[in-house]
Amino acid sequence: QVQLVESGGGVVQPGRSLRLSCAASGFTFSSYAIHWVRQAPGKGLEWVALISYDGSNKYYADSVKGRFTISRDNSENTLYLQMNSLRAEDTAVYYCTKDQRLYGGDSLYYFDYWGQGTLVTVSS
Amino acid sequence: EIVLTQSPATLSLSPGERATLSCRASQSVNYYLAWYQQKPGQAPRLLIYDASNRATGIPARFSGSGSGTDFTLTISSLEPGDFAVYYCQQRSNWPPENTFGQGTRLEIK
């Protein structure tokens, strides 16, 4: 079955960096775009970033552009989110989510599988 | 930029009752709309995509309808496990800022 397992969350001071990972299994990872979606405590869902199935296209929300970098290693079935210059407003649970469409990543689609999320807390 | 507005913010019903949740788009999204269910402490789960198609493993009591700007998620007879927060999401916008609605909390009356 499809599994997405995030790791790397924790407590970090404002201005510092953190790298999240998402280990995928149960599907052909290299054939699907993957997204990061976050949820601040008690709030709704916010799309953060997208990487196409082959890593050639990457897109970011304005709120993280220039600070976050999404990447993937298809040989290791792993997705990453490098988060720099963290702010208090980046505090959230970060989910990696699989794009529903085969060979997607050049347009938005739906999110058919989600990981359990990893909590990032930015606080001094 | 398309904005999704969900109503009501909170819906209080009893098990066995019918639930009707609304999602309105600020401009047409054709039929490119999905619904997700999120229970406390869990990740969201895809219920409906392209307005009316049930995702894999979703019970038939969940149904979606609508097109253009007005969409509805209907739960025909509520079960205890259905009380959760429901989000709509559109895939018509690019880049995908504000792709989700703000959510409707379905609570037990």
How does this model look, in words?
The complex is a heterodimer of chains A (124) and B (109). With 124 residues, chain A is mostly beta strands. Chain A has strands at residues 3-7, 10-12, 18-25, 32-39, 45-51, 58-60, 68-73, 78-83, 92-102, 111-114, 118-122. Helices cover 0% and strands 53% of the residues of chain A. In chain A, a hairpin with a 6-residue loop joins strand 5 (45-51) and strand 6 (58-60). Chain B has 109 residues and is an all-beta fold. Chain B is 0% helix and 47% strand. Chain B contains no helices and 10 strands. In chain B, strand 5 (45-49) and strand 6 form a beta hairpin. The radius of gyration of chain B is 13 Å and the shape is globular. Chain B starts with a strand and ends with a strand. The model of chain B has no long low-confidence stretch (mean pLDDT 95). The A-B interface holds A 44-47, 50, 59, 61-62, 95, 100, 107-117 and B 34, 36, 42-46, 49, 55-56, 87, 89, 91-97, 99-103.
List keywords for this structure.
heterodimer; A: 124 residues; 7-stranded mixed beta sheet; 11 strands; globular; B: 109 residues; mainly beta; 6-stranded mixed beta sheet; 4-stranded antiparallel beta sheet; 47% strand
Structural class of chain A: mainly beta
Q: Considering DSSP H and I runs of 4 or more, what fraction of the residues of chain A is helical? A: under 10%
Estimated radius of gyration of chain A = 13 Å
Radius of gyration of chain B: 13 Å
Strand content of chain A: over 45%
Q: Choose one word for the global shape of chain A.
A: globular
Order of helices and strands of chain B: EEEEEEEEEE
Poorly predicted runs of chain A are none
Sketch the major β-sheet of chain B.
Answer: 6 strands, mixed
Shape of chain B: globular
Number of helices of chain A: 0
Give a short account of the largest sheet of chain A: 7 strands, mixed
Overall pLDDT metric of chain A: 96
Broad structural category of chain B: mainly beta
The end-to-end distance of chain A, rounded to whole angstroms, is 40 Å
Count of DSSP H/I helices of chain B: 0
Intertermini distance of chain B: 36 Å
Helix content of chain B: under 10%
Let me know the number of strands of chain B: 10
Q: Ranges of chain B with pLDDT <50 over ≥5 residues?
A: none
